[in-house]
Amino acid sequence: MRKPISRILVINDETLVLKEFVKGLNAAAKSLDNPLGIVFTGITTARDALKAIEEDGDIQAVIVDDTLYTLKNNGAGNSRVLQMSALELVQKITRFRPELDVYILIAQEQEDEVVDALFSEAVDGYFYREERDYRGIYRILNAQMQEKADTPFYDALKTYVLMAKDAWHTPGHSSGDSLRDSPWISDFYEFMGEHVFDADLSVSVPMLDSLMEPTGVIAEAQKLAAKAFGARRTFFATNGTSTGNKVIFQTLIAPGEKLLLDRNCHKSVHHGVVLSGARPVYLDSSLNKRYGIFGPIPKKTIMRAIEEHADAEALVLTSCTYDGLRYDLAPIIEAAHHKGIRVVVDEAWYGFARFHPAFRPTALESGADYATQSTHKVLSAFSQASMIHVNDPRFNEHIFRENFNMHTSTSPQYSMIASLDIARKQAVMEGYKLLARTLALSKELRQQINSSGVFRVLELEDLLPDEVRNDNIQLDPTKVTVDISECGYTVDELQNELFERYNIQVEKSTFNTLSLLLTIGTTRSKVSRLYDALMRIAREGRSPRRLYRTPEIPGFTQLKYLPRDAFYCGGTTLPILDDQDKLNAALTGKVAADQITPYPPGIPVLVPGQVITAGIVTYLAGLLRSHKRVELHGIVYDGYLPCVRVLTSSDEKGLKKLKA
Ligand SMILES: Cc1ncc(COP(=O)(O)O)c(C=O)c1O
Asked: Which of 234, 307, 401, 508 is the most buried (most CB within 10 A)?
């Protein structure tokens, strides 16, 4: 493995003192053990220091002198002018890059004053300037940085594997021994690699802790993650953010209690409604009709819902959305908290945001009580590895733990936990640098795509539905949406062309857009290959095709029963179309027992307990007859007949109707 570089800035305006200090510290770094590649650099002004912190992703820590003066000639001889107080500089640094370690160099006589002023700031330590204890300072910096770069779970896993203990426990493949010599499946062993198997262990190994009751290396890894992401508590989830969301709703909401949610939430939130017995209050998201993209819920809709449903237990929002639109969360969260409503933010697509100021504030920084993040979607963790961050001052750990354990396998995949540990380490140690590169690549790619003259990247103004134009919505530039309507292919044909001819797989599409996801793993080569492919397609000079949009999803109708009550009824199935392909009038007025979600767009047209209208039946029939293949999740097939499960009249008699 390449040795890292860890630059530490020393900021002091007295050139000679600074020179001596930096020399002493570098000599200490050279003569002592230095696994992190620590080097010290001196800077004399606060402005240059901030510039260096912005431009140099290898900076890991700063030592700020508490007196930052500069010499100024005011005509009557030289006088000293304060550049910036240590407090101001520390605040600027930590707001910009909260992952940096910050130390203060103080003069003996100012100790109380300085420590008091910086009391509430994230200062990692103080050193007396006059002591000039370079080796001592270096040892402390090195130790604290190593702590930040620690991966307690991954280290323990690796150590255990290398100890090569005989396995008399699960899993059954026993470190891969059941595969290695098999004439039938040893190729799988070889393809996957030996450590996939020997690191696949179980709770039978006490030194690897327990995800369900962590007290050792998993607890330590979670603590480091909480610090890195700015949470009071962090929990590792090995079943994705899908599980994270369900755990939170089951923790916060008792049957019948209200939850305010976007109808366009991920389906795990809707499943959480069924599991928890929540009474959902759906808030309609904005819609960009031109591109078929659902945006955030208008701020005034959220604010009105908070006022009208002050008895709600929680509000859940998705930020950013799949298309990269993110809310101005702080005022919304403040309004919700004012009414005692907790705020949960689904940050499945935004787990990296803490590590570059271009993406902040994060949900937690904006005051959210819970944030769920698919670390696997946008950082270096394995699929399904997610984090649940908690900042709820009323956090009930016992109830949370019971729900967490209810959803967690007693045999979690250990390499997934290790991948969360290393993903956090990477985000803290080089997240800023990698995200700066990703941002640069995104800018380059946007320019290149637009230069094709055929494809066009949609910017914030293009993506924003009218209803949210004044809501201070921001765009995450790592999500790139491309208008393909001029290229002469339908979206399906284009995706196929990119895949078959150019070996490119994109993230998702609508009828006239393609979405590309840039991450810290995006390379310049991938950008070039995509640009090349789009340019070649653009040069084919095809005439634009007629593009068919899917019918617009009908608005929400009435919720007659709690989704959980309706879901657990036996019900009966009724076809959407009869034998003559006519709409089945018998469905109108019935109550759905299942969630029916057309994909795309992935928004449920029906949730359990919702009244079915003629408009909904027409919409479903339209999708079934559409040329474009649309998945219809929740539909039951009776032979060839697509059906909806609905409540029978005797089911309805046994249920309590919801008050309007
Ligand atoms: C907004 C949102 N939340 C949650 C999830 C579920 O995340 P995971 O795949 O980690 O279970 C997704 C997945 O696509 C999502 O888009």
From this structure: 234
CA of 136 to the centre of ligand 1 (A): 47
Backbone angles phi, psi at 652, to 5 degrees: -65, -35
Q: Tell me the residue length of the chain.
A: 660
**How many whole angstroms from 373 Cα to the centroid of ligand 1?**
8
C-beta of residue 466 within 8 angstroms of C-beta of residue 300: no
Say which residue the tokens 């290229």 belong to: 487
CA of 241 to the centre of ligand 1 (A): 5
Nearest-atom index, ligand 1, CA of 321: 1
- Residue 106 sits at φ, ψ, to 5 deg, of -120, 150
Instruction: Determine which of 238-252, 318-332, 629-643 has the lowest per-residue pLDDT on average.
Output: 629-643
361 preceded by cis ω (within 30°)?
Answer: yes
Q: What is the mean pLDDT of residues 326-333?
A: 98
Q: Which protein residues are within 6 Å of ligand 1, measured from CB? A: 240-242, 266, 268, 318, 322, 346, 348, 374, 386
Across all residues in the chain, what is the average pLDDT? 93
**What is the distance in A from the centroid of ligand 1 to the CA of 371?**
12
Token pair recorded at residue 150: 């620690």
Residue 123: per-residue pLDDT? 85
467 alpha carbon – ligand 1 mean position (Å): 25
Percent of the chain with pLDDT over 70: 96
Closest C-alpha to ligand 1, atom 7: 241
Which of 150, 137, 155 lies closest to 38 in space, CA to CA? 137
Average confidence (pLDDT) over 332-350 = 98
Give Cα 658 distance to the centre of its chain. Answer: 35
Question: What pLDDT does residue 119 have?
Answer: 66
On the question of pLDDT at 121 being above 80, the answer is no
55: Cβ contacts below 8 Å, ≥ 6 apart: none
Q: Residues 74-115: pLDDT tens digits?
A: 555 566 677 778 888 999 999 999 999 999 988 766 667 667
Assessment of whether the complete model's pTM goes beyond 0.90: yes
Between 544 and 309, residue with greater pLDDT: 309
Rounded to whole angstroms, the Cα distance separating 421 from 518 reads 22
Measure the CA–CA gap between 219 and 213, rounded to whole angstroms: 9
Q: In order of start, what are the domains of the chain with their CATH numbers?
A: 6-148 (3.40.50.2300), 158-202 (no CATH), 203-428 (3.40.640.10), 432-539 (3.90.1150.10), 563-653 (3.90.100.10)
What does the pLDDT look like over 235-293, one tens digit per residue? 999 999 999 999 999 999 999 999 999 988 999 999 999 999 999 999 999 988 888 88
Residue of 249, 269, 372, 374 best suited for mutating to test ligand 1, as the one with most atoms within 8 Å of CB: 374
Tell me the three state secondary structure of residue 21. Answer: helix
Inter-residue contact 338 to 358 (CB < 8 Å): no
- Please give the pLDDT value at position 79: 66
Q: How far is CA 452 from CA 181, 410, 486, 537, in A?
A: 53, 52, 11, 9
180's enclosing H/E stretch is helix 177-180
